[in-house]
Amino acid sequence: TFRVMEPTAEINAFRAGEIDMAGNSQSLSADTLEQIADVEDTTVYRAARASNNLIQLNAEREQFADLETRQAMFMAIDREQITEVMWDGLDYTEEPAGSLNLYPYQDGYEDALANSGYEYNVDEANAILDEAGWEMGDDGIRERDGVRFEGRLPTFGDDALTEARARVVQQQLKAIGFDMQLDQRAASEFSTTLNEKDWDLVTLGFSSSDAYGVMWMCQVYCYADGGNGLNLSSTMDESFDERIHEVEALPTAEEQIPAAMKLEAELMAESWGILPLYAGPQIMAAKSGLANLTPEPYTGLDLFGIQPVENFGWAK
């Protein structure tokens, strides 16, 4: 029997022994993990979500119009520091996100981001910006041809972790002379802000509804999908579409997947509009012995639905 409950009520019910699993509707946090730490016969399961958290730059803005500047921006973002803040107290780690097609635990996965030439390197980022003509001002902010090196990143709602993530990025980009201003907005403004491109930088996430991410490559990298897809950076061109369609036309997964991973690295290096940050955890707690309701992809109650949903229950 599944009961629909608010997260706080769910934790209270689990502590009271009224339900056998918690964390299905909302991944357990450091706070809720502490609340259930003394519940007997409890097993905590941790797994990577089938999702991508990422940051995008708006190349329609003058300060992000050239490829070298966008590359330098991403090279100044320390993704490891971001995850340390986001996962504090969760006892969770994962491989660095390197693709928006496949996850590190999937067959055929390659770190396309690393293969594109990306690395976290503040010194190199500053050198690239110097070469691109961005001059450092007395206030620590760069300027080029009268354009100030700055931009707004909106945050939505009042989630403390979301704000903390934004402040980490703000401090990281300050090291290369970029002035990132935080713009807090109501959660209800998310869709309008995103669709109207009322942002210079934006962090967001999307989840995978099936296991074969290569099939959805066009949603992230196609020029034609630039207004309706997941990539709103305006950094793609028409050649992206043709090359992606060539990969789509390959007849087998054995041919398609390595070709897609190679192409993804090329497209990243030619656009620098979207940077994968992490997948992030799905954390659940269950009474010990409750089987196959854990969050691991392909194993339990996951988004991909590989496991028959009736194949769960109490282990003998």
Care to describe what's here?
This protein is an alpha+beta fold and 316 residues long. The chain is 32% helix and 19% strand. The chain contains 11 helices and 13 strands. A hairpin with a 5-residue loop joins strand 4 and strand 5. Helix 3 packs antiparallel against helix 6 and helix 4 runs antiparallel to helix 7. The mean pLDDT is 90.
Contiguous uncertain segments of 5+ residues: none
State Rg: 21 Å
CATH architecture of the largest domain: Roll
CATH homologous superfamily designation of the largest domain:
Dipeptide-binding Protein, Domain 3
User: Element order, helices and strands?
Assistant: HEHEEHHHHEEEEHEHEHHHEEEE
Mean of all residue-level pLDDT scores: 90
The number of helical runs is 11
Strand adjacency order, main sheet = 1-11-2
What's the N-to-C terminus distance?
20 Å
Give a quick rundown of the structure.
With 316 residues, this protein is of the alpha+beta class.
Task: Name its key features.
316 residues, alpha+beta, Dipeptide-binding Protein, domain 3, three-stranded antiparallel sheet, 11 helices, 13 strands
